[in-house]
Structure formats: C-alpha cells, structure tokens
C-alpha cells in the first residue's frame, strides 16, 4: 500500500506540474496543514503568515484536513504556482518520499511541520516542530504527579484510557512515552485500555465509549492522547457514561481545548495539559524557508520548539485561550 500511494502521488504531482506554468510572485511560500480547522493549526498558520509578511513574502495557507489526495494536489499546485518554499503537515506520512522528490525536482524548498517525513532514500525531510518523545514524557510525568496526589494508587479501581492515533509515528512517540512514564511509576499493564482514534474529538468520543462500557469495574480513569482532541473526546465519553470530573485525570497535549473549561470556570476532566505554541512552529517554519531561499542559512535538519505543562492555576500566565 505504501509503495502504491507513493507512486500514484508522484505521478499526480508531476502531471500537475507539467500541465501548469509558474505564475506566482517570486516571494511566495506555502503552508499545507492536515486538520487545518483545529486551533493549533489555525495558530500555526497565523504564525507562518505573520513571519512571511514581516520579511516581505506572501503566503498561502491550505487546509487539506485528513485527505492525503488533497495534500498531493496542494503540493503540486504550490509547485506549479511558483512557490519558493513549502511547509507541510501531511495527513499520511506515506506521501513523504513523493512530495520530497517532487519538491527537489522542482527546486522548491520543503520542510515537514509537526509530523516527520522521509525522502526516497530514507533520510529525513528538514523538520520543524516538537520532539514527540519529550512531549509524551512531559504528559506522562504530569499524569503521574496528579495520580500520586489523588490517592488512587492506594486501592481505587482505576484505569487508563490510552487514546492512540496509531497510524502517525509522531503520535506513537508521544503516547508510548506517556505510557512508559505511568508504567515506571507503578501502573500495571492491565490498567491500560487502548482507544484507537484518528486524531479528532468526535472519533475519540465514539471509540472510547465501547471501551468504557466494556470495563464496568473501573470507577476512576486517567486519560492521555496524541493531542487535546483525543483527551477531550475520551473525557466527553466518560461524562456521557456518568463519570464525574473528580473521577477523571485527563492530561491534554496542546492545551487549546483544555484551557476553555478552565477559562469558563467549568468542572472538567482536564487536570493539566502540555502547551504547544502552534504560532511558534509556523514562525520557525517560515523563517527557516526564507533564510534558505535567500541563502543566508541552509535549512536546518531539525528545529524543535519548547513546551510547558499548564494547569487551571497557571495557564493564564503561559498562554492565550480562545
């Protein structure tokens, strides 16, 4: 399946490039995002646009949701329009070799944002984003700290909703690391109940419901996921199943969903979250592309942004909440 997607993707890109002429201004860069309606990617697009404008470049933001075919079309359109650089958070990492080759053949600079991509030879596309394992470690450590203070480990019937986006490697890095921190703290393997989801709130809600129903003996839950949407969906499922917020320890990843009930003063299963600045990633991606376009710096292999654990008590000091 991977090789078929790669070959079809490359063919689609090259066909589109050959069928168009470059007509855009010389100073255009493009950002392509999966799930572009999520707040994190909205913030990232804003950071990308502002950084481009500050340096005299135009920018084009394209939302492809979770559609790999739309991502392929977006890359080919960007190349055909004459863009000098492309930043992409791909819906499917399998398209990495194809888009990397197409960009290289067209002499268009390419960076992968958030989710790493590989070229045909297995080497990495220059990356801008976060360290997945470090992020997962932070989430896991926060969950362990809250769990120890809760007293649940002294005999409560608790479980862990391990909400996993299993088809994205960076998500596996995050959730595997979170699980490891909990296991290191003494949470036995049989406490973990896996919820497989697609990165969206609705899917996490739908996937978590049957898992909760299948474990009626558990009366308290820890929840972690690849992103805030996963934790939000799973905690909503717990609420629908009759669990009170005090019986849920949810640790988000992103904090843009977690902060909303905190801001509104609403009781919630979110007890903490790892704040990620999408705007910082967008700014870093734009500047890395422009530096390379102008020849002032080569594209760095990896640009990693900082993260911070926030809670209802300190989030206002760390992040905006909309």
Automatic annotation (TrEMBL):
Q: Does the keyword Cell membrane apply?
A: no
**Record SUPFAM superfamilies:** Periplasmic binding protein-like I
Q: Which UniProt keywords apply?
A: Plasmid, Signal
The yes or no answer to whether the keyword Signal is present is yes
Compartments where found: Periplasm
Q: From which residue to which does the signal peptide run?
A: 1-24
Concerning InterPro entries, the annotation shows: AraF, Bact_Solute-Bind_Prot2, Peripla_BP_I, SBP_2_dom
Pfam families, per the entry: Peripla_BP_4 (PF13407)
Tell me which residues make up the Periplasmic binding protein domain: 31-297
In terms of one coarse class, where is the protein primarily found?
A: periplasm
Report the family membership. Belongs to the bacterial solute-binding protein 2 family.
Name of the protein described by the UniProt record: Sugar ABC transporter substrate-binding protein
